[in-house]
């Protein structure tokens, strides 16, 4: 991370000896040496070590419903996509898994580390089943859990056994789902009461929501249900809960016999597998989960208040007791009736309400309470806030402006960035745009109507979507609605040159002057005073502050302009109408920065607000900026973590506070890193070389990824320093997930910008003012001096158990033994605030010995490692094992331990003599356990407890002589783990892809898939070599293509970082375009663009000037000398050196052609990884005379940010309970639990969040499975909107969401809309990966069926035939999916009357069903009956033809069967892997009793009414 102590040491040296000569020399970039493959992308996530998915106990065969754990595609193809969080004890790196080991409610599970640019995918699982029938489910290891109604008899046993109470449904995405009891999620009203939620402000971090009357905890936007945050990524089941009941029972019996205990699920990393957790401890942990009453309290205080704006009628607004006054203030700033106001207070009964108070805590706030909006006096700051708010309102629907800013969507990417990240620019989107409405709504006013189903909608796809087309268009990625033209209300809004007001006018209340040019070309000079706004008589050259006629004073600038300009009044009203019709999810701001890799060319317009702020910001005058407040980030974070957590309400407030502060911190870190690299911040050590500069900006400490003071020299120098930043972030994530009370970590974020890695951290109080003697624990000089402290030993004891770190002894500088409970590089200090802090957590996880080549280790290398060519020399010694791998290895060792102990104990029980003394028998049992512990490497002699010593291979660490045997055992244990990765986990990844448990679509999804098995990206070469050895490698060709693309783009990224360090700022765009040309353009010798902005000297003649211009091409720069051949040679070298994969092609063109790669896909991956934003246009890569890219094509470069992402532990626990309930068949109970969890998540996180999208997606599938298609449609539409906004329009998850939404639209009868959505999904898939992919097989099958329903049979056959080819390739010619593809073709051919072809395809399907399922299978019987019917129809048709040919009268021939909507829908469900389980007898009985109860109550009510009427008579 740029070790903070080394930075301090360098600063001290500089300040003590300012006159010493500065150390010179070229900057040595570590960028080529980054541990990028596994450290650089935290979007790969890192699961909670407590729940490694790689764990054998988590394999599908161990589950009743395997899809509950595995994420899958609609067609039953599971996609383990990049989760985005690294959970350690509950978090990151791959799947955020587990419950977080709730310790008295403290353990903050699922704090996450996330990468915003290398899009983290989470393609989630669905209601799954193989294509046709339940027997197939049984033949394929129960990969699908929903069954056909025709397979009812075969499911009855399972239904009875597990008490299935509703339609089969799985929870593969383990996220909370909010179930609205009324089942109606599609209510919409014309009021736009709470459209936005501001997630990033520090004081007014507003949650704008209205609470539903029908369901507590359901937030409303426009009176729509907003299911705000789900939990993401990995299963959070306890492992024993996820096993089959029979296995659990059998294990329990074995445990009773052997005295063994299963791995502790509450503290899986604390005491190993046989954890001796007491019942009291377990009961205490269970108390941390919120009770029903506690969760109900969160939303039972929901009520409606009346809002009285000035001069208008009051309106009702639903609020919650947890809503603060500041949040209500922001809601009103977005409300249709009050959006033009910004400077007001809220009063109740004449008393001003405190902005920090919650509504529930204010006396007098109750149902029907009247809250008045009272206009306040303006200050200069209030005026600037108002101007910004008005400007954002006027640009809120200007799509061309939204796309460009990397923070808010405005075209001024730099000018107003700080206002965006500080949260004051409430109009900024901080995310992608959503394009869903283009396909689901004809215009803003017909939402939910069937206007899109008219014949005017084209059913033919664009040519570039048709099967076989090789052209990949880029412009359709961001389509623009034809009728959506921006509404311009003003021509110019600018700060007047007459500012500041003179002294005498300040005494009259003048604050500022602004100049406005209206659409009528009328120039207005406006005075902003303490009472509001009025027009004055000033002109451009004459200052006259007196009011002009008509003398109108308005508190809002919008009100004044509406009086002065008819065009403004008309256009602003139209603008407001459009905003009301906009879906609220299209308006809400995202909590973190999300950037698109392409953007259309946009103009640049005047913006007085940001221009003034940027001038001060770039001069470093942050304190003078209106919107900037210097914050004490460290104090805020630490105080938030110290908040009480005894009750659910307290934990909710704590989690909410941590989430909001972290969001603000990440935004500030990104802004600070960008400002630092652009030279806008003065370094603390200006006399040092630039690459060693450190900065303090906005109370944040920034350092670059270079080795300062040769601190990392023993472990790799600059390469190690670069990788250490991500290692440290992962370590911070780990300890933050454990959340040990009293132990503090720093807020940390890693930013890659313009080829340089920057680490941003909060500042430890007193660290920059004091000497380094304050280190009381650990070593900061590679083991030369080592310290320990009893306070840190006590605090680290708990975390060391959870993180599987072995306490150990090392020798200090004097040779005395020192006890440590962490890596030796972990430093403990006491800040001046008295808090204990731990820093430098880069070596939290065990080292990976496969990449630590040492002479003494050669004798220890296992055969499995030697067979793969390991160990290999790596650029640095910081390569470590992933937590998923650690957990999988521990589970594997536990199975060996249990087997050995059980066998020996069973043998002892069988041979034990009755007369043998009890004590002797007990001793024998202890000896058996001791022997088993020794064999598996347990650190304990009496129980299974595997820990790792992170210092055994670290250079410079010395151990006491009595500890050397234990050190040797630890080294052998690490070698066993390294061998386990190669021999078990890499083949497991390929098996996942082979059986479609994982279906990667791009580099991010591939990274997620291998990370979930604990495999680092640096093993891509080993995985490709293993793939080449497989017999089924043809079925994994898509995995091979994506892996090779990932090796190429990651290697190119390493080179790009080194390449950019030699580029001068004026040539950034030219250098980037030249690099992309060398990488992807077919031009034989791409020449870099000259600096087009440079002007020739006036002294030169035109002829000389022309010659000079030709010579002005910057060939003297190192970056300009790069050629395509040179770049490919460097990529080959980098791939061999880093990923250990050899490219044999002589050029990248040859490699692309050899593996059928797409250049547009490579461009997308490269842009996302490096933060390049390109112009949205069609790029011609194949032209050999003109380069594909010019410097004008490089629109921007945005920072790639990795950071922590906290969430709610209580909600995660409820999600775990809900998953368990759903797994056992109690689906309604699971729905209830998920609803409570969602209530908690919604109060902690914002709406635009991956967890929310996951929740909505799951809930939509559940509703669809239950037959509630309308609700499923609304929920899935929201999921698509969120996916587009926060993950990207071309993200694989967005493709999946479009696919599900198309199914629901088809089920609702909107066939044309369904078709357009499928076209969109196919286009996005083609752009991301191309046509040769299993996802295309699914989409083509669905497209063929939908087109058949629309009677477009010829077009339908094109897609279905392509689907048949791809299904045969990727699923096998004998698979059931291939049979279903044949059956779909049969249906189309039958409707066309081509019975010969229909018979041919149905025969193929029948043979597959018969061979795979047997003749007694329902699918086989149905196919046989269908064959017979087709044969009969074919015979009748042939007879009729012969009779007609002979002139004889013929029997009537039945017309071909027309497509039936129910039949096609059934086939679509089967294609997507969805079938329906009939309700169980228990459920039917319960429903019948409920109906009888309701009928009885109705009868009683009627009788009472009759009696009352009689008495009145």
Offer a few descriptive terms.
45 helices; 26 strands; alpha+beta; 6-stranded antiparallel sheet
Structure description:
The protein has 1513 residues and is an alpha+beta fold. The protein has 45 helices and 26 strands. The strands form 7 sheets. It has a 6-stranded antiparallel sheet with strand order 1-26-17-18-16-15, with helices on both faces. It is globular. The N and C termini lie far apart (88 Å). 57% of the residues are buried.
N-end to C-end Cα span:
88 Å
Tell me the number of helical segments per DSSP (H or I, 4 or more residues long).
Answer: 45
Portion of residues within helices: 40-55%
- Order of strands across the widest beta sheet? 1-26-17-18-16-15
Mean pLDDT: 75
Shape: globular
- How many strands, what sense, and barrel or not for the largest sheet? 6 strands, antiparallel
Strand content: 5-15%
The count of strands amounts to 26
Q: Report the uncertain regions.
A: 18-287, 402-431, 442-452, 618-627, 1105-1115
Radius of gyration: 33 Å
Class computed from helices, strands and strand pairing: alpha+beta
């Amino acid at each position: 991370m740029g070790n903070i102590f080394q930075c301090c040491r360098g600063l001290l040296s500089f300040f003590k000896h300012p006159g010493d000569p500065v150390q010179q020399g070229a900057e040595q970039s570590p960028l080529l040496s980054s541990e990028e493959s596994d450290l650089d992308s935290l979007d790969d996530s890192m699961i909670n070590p407590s729940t490694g998915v790689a764990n054998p106990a988590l394999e599908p065969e161990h589950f009743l419903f395997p899809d509950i754990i595995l994420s899958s595609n609609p067609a039953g193809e599971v996609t383990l996509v990049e989760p985005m969080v690294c959970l350690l004890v509950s978090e990151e790196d791959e799947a955020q898994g587990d419950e977080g080991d709730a310790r008295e409610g403290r353990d903050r599970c699922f704090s996450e580390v996330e990468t915003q640019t290398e899009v983290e995918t989470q393609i989630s699982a669905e209601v799954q089943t193989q294509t046709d029938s339940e027997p197939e489910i049984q033949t394929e290891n129960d990969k699908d859990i929903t069954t056909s109604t025709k397979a009812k008899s075969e499911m009855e046993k399972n239904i009875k056994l597990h008490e299935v109470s509703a339609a089969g449904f799985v929870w593969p995405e383990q996220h909370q789902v909010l179930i609205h009891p009324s089942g109606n999620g599609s209510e919409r009203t014309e009021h736009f009461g709470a459209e936005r939620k501001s997630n990033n402000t520090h004081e007014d971090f507003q949650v704008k929501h209205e609470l539903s009357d029908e369901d507590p905890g359901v937030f409303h936007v426009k009176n729509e249900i907003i299911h705000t945050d789900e939990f993401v990524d990995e299963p959070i089941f306890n492992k024993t809960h996820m096993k089959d009941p029979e296995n659990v029972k059998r294990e329990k019996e074995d445990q009773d016999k052997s005295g063994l205990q299963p791995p502790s699920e509450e503290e899986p990393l604390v005491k190993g597998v046989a954890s001796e957790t007491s019942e009291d401890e377990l009961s205490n942990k269970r108390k941390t989960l919120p009770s029903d009453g506690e969760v109900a309290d969160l939303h039972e205080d929901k009520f409606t208040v009346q809002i009285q704006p000035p001069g208008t009628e009051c309106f009702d607004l639903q609020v919650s007791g947890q809503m603060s006054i500041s949040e209500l203030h922001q809601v009103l700033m977005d409300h249709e009736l009050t959006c033009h106001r910004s400077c007001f207070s809220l009063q109740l009964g004449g008393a001003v309400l405190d902005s920090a108070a919650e509504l529930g805590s204010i006396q007098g706030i109750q149902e029907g309470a009247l809250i008045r909006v009272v206009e306040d006096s303006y200050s200069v700051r209030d005026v600037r806030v108002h101007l910004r708010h008005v400007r954002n309102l006027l640009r809120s629907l200007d799509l061309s402006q939204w796309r460009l800013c990397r923070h808010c969507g405005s075209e001024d990417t730099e000018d107003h960035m700080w206002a965006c990240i500080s949260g004051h620019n409430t109009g900024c989107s901080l995310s992608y745009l959503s394009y869903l409405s283009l396909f689901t709504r004809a215009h803003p006013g017909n939402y939910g109507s069937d206007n899109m189903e008219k014949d005017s909608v084209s059913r033919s796809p664009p040519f570039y979507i048709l099967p076989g087309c090789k052209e990949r268009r880029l412009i359709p990625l961001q389509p623009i609605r034809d009728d959506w033209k921006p509404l311009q209300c003003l021509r110019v809004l600018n700060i007047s040159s007459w500012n500041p007001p003179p002294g005498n006018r300040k005494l009259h209340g003048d604050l500022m002057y602004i100049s406005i040019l209206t659409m009528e070309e009328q120039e207005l000079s406006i005075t902003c005073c303490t009472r509001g706004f009025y027009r004055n008589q000033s002109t451009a050259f004459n200052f006259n502050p007196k009011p002009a006629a008509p003398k109108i004073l308005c508190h809002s600038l919008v009100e004044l302009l509406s009086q002065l300009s008819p065009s403004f009044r008309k256009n602003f009203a139209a603008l407001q109408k459009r905003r009301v019709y906009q879906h609220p999810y299209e308006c809400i701001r995202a909590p973190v920065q999300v950037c698109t890799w392409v953007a259309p060319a946009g103009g640049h317009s005047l913006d007085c607000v940001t221009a003034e702020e940027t001038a001060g910001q770039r001069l470093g005058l942050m304190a003078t900026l209106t919107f900037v407040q210097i914050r004490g980030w460290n104090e805020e974070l630490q105080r938030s973590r110290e908040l009480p957590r005894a009750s659910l309400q307290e934990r909710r407030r704590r989690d909410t506070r941590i989430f909001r502060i972290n969001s603000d911190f990440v935004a500030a870190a990104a802004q600070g890193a960008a400002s630092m690299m652009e030279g806008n911040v003065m370094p603390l050590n200006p006399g040092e070389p630039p690459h060693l500069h450190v900065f303090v900006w906005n109370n944040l400490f920034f350092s670059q990824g270079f080795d300062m003071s040769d601190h990392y020299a023993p472990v790799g120098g600059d390469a190690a320093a670069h990788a250490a930043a991500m290692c440290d972030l992962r370590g911070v994530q780990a300890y933050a997930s454990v959340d040990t009370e009293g132990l503090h970590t720093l807020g940390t974020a890693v930013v890659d910008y313009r080829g340089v890695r920057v680490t941003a951290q909060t500042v430890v109080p007193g660290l920059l003012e004091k000497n380094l003697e304050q280190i009381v624990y650990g070593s900061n000089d590679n083991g030369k001096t080592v310290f320990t402290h009893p306070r840190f030993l006590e605090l680290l004891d708990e975390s060391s158990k959870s993180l599987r770190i072995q306490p150990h002894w090392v020798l200090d500088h004097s040779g005395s033994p020192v006890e440590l409970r962490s890596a030796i590089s972990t430093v403990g200090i006491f800040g001046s605030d008295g808090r204990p802090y731990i820093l430098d957590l880069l070596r939290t996880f065990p080292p990976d010995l496969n990449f630590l080549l040492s002479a003494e280790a050669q004798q220890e290398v296992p055969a499995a490692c030697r067979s793969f060519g390991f160990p290999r020399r790596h650029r640095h010694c910081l390569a470590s094992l992933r937590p998923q791998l650690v957990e999988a290895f521990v589970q594997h060792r536990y199975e060996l331990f249990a087997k050995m102990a059980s066998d020996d104990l069973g043998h002892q029980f069988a041979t034990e003599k009755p007369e043998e003394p009890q004590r002797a028998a007990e001793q024998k049992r202890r000896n058996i356990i001791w022997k088993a512990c020794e064999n598996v490497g347990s650190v304990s002699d009496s129980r299974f407890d595997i820990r790792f010593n992170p210092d055994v291979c670290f250079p410079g660490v010395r151990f006491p002589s009595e500890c050397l045997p234990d050190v040797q055992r630890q080294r052998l244990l690490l070698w066993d783990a390294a061998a386990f990765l190669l021999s078990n986990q890499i083949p497991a990844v390929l098996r996942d892809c082979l059986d479609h448990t994982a279906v990667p679509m791009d580099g991010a999804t591939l990274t997620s898939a291998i990370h979930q098995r604990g495999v680092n990206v640096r093993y891509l070469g080993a995985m490709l070599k293993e793939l080449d050895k497989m017999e089924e490698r043809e079925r994994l060709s898509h995995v091979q293509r994506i892996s090779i693309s990932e090796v190429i783009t990651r290697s190119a990224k390493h080179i790009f970082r080194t390449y950019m360090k030699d580029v001068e700022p004026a040539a950034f765009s030219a250098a980037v375009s030249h690099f992309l040309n060398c990488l992807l353009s077919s031009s034989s010798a791409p020449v870099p663009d000259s600096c087009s902005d440079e002007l020739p000297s006036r002294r030169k003649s035109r002829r000389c000037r022309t010659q000079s211009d030709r010579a002005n091409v910057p060939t003297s720069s190192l970056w300009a000398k790069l050629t395509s051949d040179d770049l490919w040679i460097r990529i080959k070298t980098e791939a061999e050196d880093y990923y250990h994969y050899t490219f044999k092609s002589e050029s990248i063109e040859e490699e692309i052609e050899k593996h059928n790669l797409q250049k547009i896909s490579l461009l997308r991956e490269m842009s996302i990884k490096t933060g390049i934003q390109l112009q949205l246009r069609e790029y011609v890569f194949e032209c050999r005379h003109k380069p594909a890219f010019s410097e004008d094509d490089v629109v921007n470069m945005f920072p790639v940010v990795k950071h922590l992402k906290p969430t709610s532990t209580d909600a995660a626990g409820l999600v775990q309970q809900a998953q368990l309930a759903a797994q056992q068949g109690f689906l309604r109970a699971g729905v209830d639990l998920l609803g409570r969890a969602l209530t908690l998540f919604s109060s902690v996180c914002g709406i635009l969040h991956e967890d929310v999208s996951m929740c909505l997606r799951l809930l939509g599938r559940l509703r669809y499975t239950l037959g509630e298609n309308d609700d499923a449609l609304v929920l899935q539409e929201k999921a698509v909107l969120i996916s587009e906004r926060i993950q990207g329009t071309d993200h694989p998850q967005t493709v999946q969401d479009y696919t599900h939404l198309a199914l629901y639209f088809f089920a609702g009868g909107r066939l044309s809309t369904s078709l357009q959505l499928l076209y969109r999904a196919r286009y996005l898939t083609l752009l991301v990966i191309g046509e040769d992919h299993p996802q295309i097989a699914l989409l083509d099958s669905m497209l063929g069926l939908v087109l058949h329903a629309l009677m477009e049979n010829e077009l339908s056959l094109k897609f279905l035939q392509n689907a048949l080819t791809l299904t045969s390739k990727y699923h096998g010619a004998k698979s059931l999916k291939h049979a279903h593809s044949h059956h779909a073709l049969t249906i189309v051919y039958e409707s066309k009357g081509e019975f010969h072809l229909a018979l041919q395809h149905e025969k193929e399907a029948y043979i597959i069903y018969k061979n795979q399922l047997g003749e007694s299978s329902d699918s086989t019987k149905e196919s046989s009956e269908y064959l017979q019917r087709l044969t009969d129809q074919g015979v009748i048709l042939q007879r009729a033809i012969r009779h007609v040919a002979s002139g004889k009268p013929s029997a009537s021939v039945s017309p071909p069967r027309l497509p039936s909507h129910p039949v096609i829908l059934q086939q679509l469900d089967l294609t997507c892997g969805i079938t329906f389980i009939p309700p169980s007898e228990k459920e039917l009985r319960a429903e019948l009793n409920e109906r009888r109860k309701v009928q009885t109550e109705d009868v009683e009510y009627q009788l009472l009414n009759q009696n009352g009427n009689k008495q009145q008579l």
